[in-house]
Amino acid sequence: MGSSIDAPNSPQCPSFAIRDESLNRFLRSVSTKEPSVSDLPYTTPSRLQTASLPSSPHHPFAAGDHSPTTAHRCVSSVLKKDGQILSIAVSNGLVYTGSETNVVRVWKLPQFTEYGQLKTRAAMAVALEVSNDKVYAAYADGKIRVWRRSWDGVPRHVRLATIPRAGINVRGYISGKDKMPWIPGLVNPPVRSKGLESVNHWRANLGFKQSLMLMKHRGAITSMAINQSDDILYSASLDRTVKVWRISDHKCIETIQAHTEPVNAIVVADDGVLYTGSDDATVRVWRRNFCSGDQPHSLTVTLPAKNSPVKTLSLTGDGAVLYGGCTDGYIHYWHKGWFSGQLQYGGALQGHTHAVMCLAIVSNFVISGSADSTCRLWNREQDGQYKCLAVLQGHRGPIRCVAVFPDRSGRDDGEDGCTICTGSLDGILKVWHVNPKGNAGRCSPQHGCDYKED
After folding, report:
1. CA 434 to CA 445: how far, in whole Å?
2. What is the pLDDT of residue 30?
3. Which terminal CB of the chain, N or C, has fewer other CB atoms within 10 Å?
4. Terminal alpha carbon distance of the chain
5. Is the pLDDT confidence value at 231 over 60?
């Protein structure tokens, strides 16, 4: 029987029950041995009160204002028969959502009506990225599917490729150019009486399979990031590596042995600096050197995350502040020093009671989704302090993914509010409008918006 994921004071609703194979997966923890929230399938947390981490003069914890003063309302809520919502991406007025099924749904803004579907044989789209009218969807099988988006009156999506490409080295193997010897114990070669041609084809097939295994992640992909200027796609995985793919031909050009534990999140800055977050409770910073041969990415610094596994990362547009959501419920952040240009620990945002599973940034707003079933909107003030502007409540399961975009009426100060899309393991997709200038209290768990069920 599934366990309820409601808050203690919220009404019971059996239709939102989720599997409970491991109830402690999303609790606050400072242990690096805790199971990864990237493990599939996802499970639901139980509510547990834990003590707050102590603050220090060198690493202050910004609790924020827990009396939100911002108007927020749920403008749409949709429940499909797709199971858990695992990923969200927003681009040019379209919202893409991935789930447990083999369907990536496309939604049109601002009406938030379904506009199309991207289907594959694989299930569980755990990460989505959109760049230059290409849609990248990473799946639990360790592969990435790519679609090209066109705008002939209405958006159309055409399947472009699968990464890694099947048959990427077949021509060389079949032509007999491979020098791969027989590997005893791996697989028996064909009988010699069938001729040399049969042996060559066997070696070609074996070499192709081994090449594909070397290129493909050995675990589920957890996150992606795109550096368009360098024609690079990054993918992180539970296999503790980050793979570097060349976008133009979809070839793997490097495998980074990034961490000692599963890599949960990656983000890349405009200057090409790569940040990786892991269950080993660290954030690592990598720089690319084009003259370094087969391993151009080198580790420059390791940032500790207070002994708590890092589940999500987000970076401001100017690359000045890096945020990391952790299983201890805190959002740790690092900012670049004025003179050194090096990342320095700035503190942590305290408010969530369970693991922070997703982050998004627009203007001065930081949006965080948590396994405590809430989404928080933080404002970064000019003096570097943070204030919690709103707590979005209404989901009945952990919030796995979030996307945000500004709502502006010709103003440049970013104060006209924003629209937030949240996807939860309860299977519901919600859209929220937040107005920092309005009055608070316009949305509550019991009196949010009605959801549409298909």
Report:
1. 16
2. 44
3. N
4. 24
5. yes
Q: Quick check: 387 and 366 in contact, CB under 8 A?
A: no
Instruction: Name, in order, each residue with C-beta under 8 angstroms of 50's C-beta and a sequence gap of 6 or more.
Output: 27, 28, 329, 353
> Do the Cβ atoms of 206 and 187 come closer than 8 Å?
yes
Query: Do the beta carbons of residue 235 and residue 241 sit within 8 Å?
Result: no
Q: Which of 153-157, 255-259, 354-358, 398-402 has the lowest mean pLDDT?
A: 153-157
- Cα torsion at 234, 239, 240, 245 (round to 10°)? -20
pLDDT digits (tens, 9 = 90+) for 43-67: 444 333 333 443 333 345 555 555 5
* Per-residue pLDDT at 451: 53
Q: What are phi and psi of 286, to 5 degrees?
A: -125, 140
Q: Categorise residue 427: left if φ over 0, alpha if ψ from -120 to 50, beta otherwise.
A: left
Q: Are strands 297-304 and 241-246 parallel, antiparallel or unpaired?
A: unpaired
Average pLDDT over all residues of the chain? 77
Can you give the pLDDT at residue 222?
A: 96
Q: What integer pLDDT is reported at residue 454 of this predicted model?
A: 59
Other Cβ atoms less than 10 A from the Cβ of 413: the count is 8
Q: What is the pLDDT of residues 286-306, one digit of tens each?
A: 998 876 666 789 999 999 998
Beta bridge partners of 144: 138, 163
Taking a C-beta distance cutoff of 8 angstroms, is the pair 5, 47 a contact? no
The whole-angstrom distance between residue 406's C-alpha and the CA centroid of its chain comes to: 20
- Contact criterion met (CB below 8 Å) for 101 and 83: yes
**What tokens appear for 350 in the block?**
């305290």
Parallel, antiparallel or unpaired: strands 343-349 and 61-62? parallel
Mean pLDDT along residues 271-275: 94
Tokens linked to 231: 């024609």
Cis amide prior to 110 (ω within 30 degrees): yes
Residue 368's nearest CA partner among 309, 418, 426, 324 is: 324
Question: Which class for 172: exposed (0-12), middle (13-18), buried (19 or more C-beta within 10 A)?
Answer: middle
Query: Exposed, middle or buried by CB within 10 Å (0-12, 13-18, 19+), for 296?
Result: middle
pLDDT (tens digit per residue) in 311-320: 999 999 999 9
* All residues at 6 or more sequence positions from 287 whose CB lies less than 8 Å from its CB, including other chains: 272, 273, 274, 297, 298, 300
Q: Which residues contact 171 (CB under 8 A, 6 or more apart)?
A: none
Listed residue (249, 248, 160, 262) closest to 219, CA to CA: 262
Q: Is the pLDDT of residue 453 over 80?
A: no
Q: Which residues of 27-36 are buried (b: 16+ CB within 10 A; e: fewer)?
A: bbbbebebbb
Read off the pLDDT band of 172 (50, 70, 90): very low
